[in-house]
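for ur thesis appendix - Sugar phosphate isomerase/epimerase. copy paste whatever u need, i formatted it the way the template wanted (i think)
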Amino acid sequence: MLLGLNLSFATKRFIEPKQLAAMCKSEFGVKHIQFTWDLIDPWWPHEQRNILIKEYREAFEAEGIKIDATFGGLASYTYAQLLAPTEVQREISFTFFKRAIDLTAEMGADVMGTPVGGMSFDDARDNNRRNYLYQEMLKYLRKLADYGKEKGIKEIHIEATPLTTEFPHDPETSIQMMKDLEGSAIPIKLLIDWGHALYKPLLKEKADILLWFKECAPYIGSIHLQQTDGEMDRHWDFTADGIITPELIKKVTKESGLDNITQYLEVVTAFESTDDEVYAGMKKTMDYLHKELNI
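the 3d part is after this line
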C-alpha cells in the first residue's frame, strides 16, 4: 500500500514552502504529495503564480519528495464548475481547469484531480437537464484531456462525491462515466474518497468501501483517506473516533488489488482550530498510520 498526503491541512497555516516540505518529510514521513489549489489558486496571474510554484516544487524536491498530483481544494469546490446552468459559467470553468492543468505541469506533477462541479436546484431535479449537463461535462473533460496531453500531464482524476447533484456519486454512475470517457487523449480515472464512499444517508446499503473498490478497481487512479463516522463527510484525522480502522484499510486494499494506488490522507480542519492543534493531530495521525499500516 502507498500512503500519501494531500496538503489540505496546511491551508492558511503552514504556507511557507521550505517549512511545509521539511514537515512532510522529517515529521510526517511522507514520500507522495498531492498539492492543493488552496495553496496556489490557478486563477492567479501566470508570472506571479509561477514564482510560487517554483518555490514549492524546489522545496519538496530538496527534501526528496515527489509531488505526484494537484487537486482542487475547498475554494474551487465552492463553484458549479462544469455542471453550471449556463454556457458562460461552464466556459469559465473550462478556462479555470485549463489553468489548473498549467499549474500541474509547471509543478512537475503528472496528475490533475478534481470534482467536476454541481448542478443547480432546478437542474438537479430535471432529468432532461441532468442528461444534457452530463453530456456537456463529458465534452469538456475530453477537451481538458486534449489540453492535458498538449501540456505534458499524464492523467486526470475525477473525484466521486456524496451528492446526487454531482457526477459521479455512486459506483454505478462512476463506472458508467469512466466508460463514457474511454478513448480520451490521456486517461481519465476515478478518485475514490473513503468518507464519500461510506456516506450512509445517500448510499444506504452501497455505503460499502469494499463494494466501491472492487467494482471500480479498473478505473481507480487515486484514493483519499480520512476518518469519518458515515453520517457526514467528516475529513477527520485519525485522532477522532470513527469507523475506519487500519485493519479495514489493509483488508479492502489487498482484496481489491489496489496496493499500487496511492491513498492520500485528506484532512480538512475547522478554521477555528489552532495551528498547534492541527499540527498535533496530523503528527499523531501520520505516526499512527505508518505504524498500523506497516508503511
